[in-house]
Amino acid sequence: VNDLQIVVIDETVHLSWSAIPDADYYRIYSTSDLNDTFILLDESATSNYSFGLPVPSGIHFYQVTAVQNSQ
Predict the structure, then answer these.
(1) Residue 9 burial (C-beta neighbours within 10 Å; 0-12, 13-18, 19+)
(2) What is the pLDDT along the chain (71 residues), one digit of tens a residue?
């Protein structure tokens, strides 16, 4: 996903992105250090995802990948 938008409102993180044609679902990853591995947070069937602020607080980085099930 190339256009990930991140908005924090009232202690909730909202991620959104443009839908990828033929994607079956999306995987949402996070890390607090770009030198570490991104960890899978969850999967979403839609092009948005919301969750409470991470603990511990601080800077967090997010990545979303589209997944297409092979037929």
Answers:
(1) exposed
(2) 999 999 999 889 999 999 999 999 999 999 999 999 999 999 999 999 999 987 667 789 999 999 998 64
Q: Cβ contacts of residue 4 below 8 Å, gap of 6+?
A: 15, 16, 17, 62, 63, 64
SS3 content of the chain, % helix, strand, coil (to 5): 0, 50, 50
What is the pTM for the complete model shown? 0.87
- Residue entry with tokens 């990853």: 29
